[in-house]
Design brief:
CATH topology: Rossmann fold
Number of domains: 1
Radius of gyration: 13 Å
CATH architecture: 3-Layer(aba) Sandwich
Largest sheet: 3 strands, parallel
Number of strands: 3
Strand order of the largest sheet: 1-2-3
Strand content: 15-25%
Number of helices: 3
Amino acid sequence: MKVLIDAVHPADVWTLGAVEDRLLAEGAETLWLSRPGKQAVVELIEARGRPHVPGPRAGTSMPTLAAELIRRDLLAWRTVRRFAPDV
């Protein structure tokens, strides 16, 4: 089974990391989508030694947040097409 995990906050890495450990023990393949610049999300995923696709940096104003959302959605779509997760 292939599982795509999206992490935008460090709590996501801590919580979903425990779920990922169980999935890996059952033979699943996982891939993380991460958000650079958001309170060490990328660093936490890399510390786990897991593969990840870094997303766009967080926006700081309404227009840049909107642009980030569009770029993040496109990245997620491309990643899903390439990785073909089951979940």
